[in-house]
Structures are given as C-alpha cells and as structure tokens.
Amino acid sequence: MARSAFPVVLSAPSGTGKTTLAHLLVDSMNNLQISVSHTTRHARGHEQSDLDYFFVTPEIFDKMIQENAFIEWATVHGHRYGSSAEWTEATLASEKDVLFDIDVQGGLQIKKHYPQAVLIFILPPSLDELETRLRNRGTDPEDLIEKRLLAARDEIRIGLDHYDYVINNEKLDRALFDLTSIVRTQRLASFDRQKIRKRLLGE
Hints:
Blueprint: E1 7-11, H1 18-28, E2 32-34, E3 38-39, E4 54-55, H2 58-66, E5 70-76, E6 79-84, H3 85-93, E7 97-101, H4 104-113, E8 118-123, H5 127-137, H6 142-162, E9 165-168, H7 172-189, H8 193-201
Parallel strand pairs: 1-7, 1-8, 2-7, 3-4, 8-9
Antiparallel strand pairs: 3-6, 5-6
Helix pairs in contact: 1-7, 5-6
C-alpha cells in the first residue's frame, strides 16, 4: 500500500548512544536510509569520510550555506553540522524514510520543514552514567567533556519540551525495540488513504 515517506530524527546528549541505536535501527528495518551529515570537525576514532560524515572545510561549509544546500545546519561544540536538502528530498521521493542522527537544534529545523517528521529524544540513564560513558570512550579532552556535560542539561530540556517521543537508553535492546515500534506505528499512520480508497473502492 502506498504511503508517504517521512524523516525520523534521533537526538541525544553526546555519549548517550544514539549513533549506535541509529545504525541498529537502519539494520533492522527496510526502506530506512540514514542521512550522512556534512561537518567541519575532524574525524574521531574509526570514523570514515562519506560513511559516517562528509568532513569538509569551513570554507566549503560556508559555500553550501550560501547555496541553500542544507535542510538544516547547526553549530555544536564549536563545529558545524548540516544535512543535504537535495539528498533528503530525493530519498523521500523514492519512498524511503530518512533517519537523522543530529542534535536538537537541527531536529527542530527539520520539524519546521517537514511537519510529518518524527522527533525522538534518547535519554541517558543518569547524568552520572553519561559522564562515565564520555570518559570511557576516550576520544575527548577534559575541557570538551565538561562542555558536553553542561550542554546535556539544555539538550534534555529541549527534548522533553519539544520532541514527540522520549526513550531511555538504559538497556540497548529495549531502546531499540521502542524505536522500532515508534517507526512502525508512524508508517501505519502515513498510508495514503485516498490512493487506497481509489484502488479498493474505485472512488
């Protein structure tokens, strides 16, 4: 049955595990394509260009802004991130839902462009656990960890106030089950009823 494709936004404080959940969600569902953001920051750990992010210079990012190439972009912890407007439109037109693994600023911008977008905020079990996760991953200096922990409080407030769903990532398998349930429910709600009426009833 025909349905309208829609954006799915996952946001969370850094270190909560949303990128892991995003990839698990894409692996577990058909017709769901993850959006690869452009960013001005350098790769971390095992990140690969064109797979995890498109790593670009600030000059290239500025040019893309001037050309209205982004459906959303934001500055996070001193670096900029943006999602391609052209790629998003083409993917949705191909009847694939688009998954965005982005911060809350970008999520709210996408909601303005696409009112049908589903915004899902991922919570850490606690702020103490979030600090432990940030330190254990060993990719950030101490001053950046402190900035991330301070930003987490504001991000959680925005998620609680403006996002459609809130999920606690205390147990990964449970969080993935909840995510899958949300997307499946939204898909059921997005069927084109006029097309179904015409096909089944000839009206």
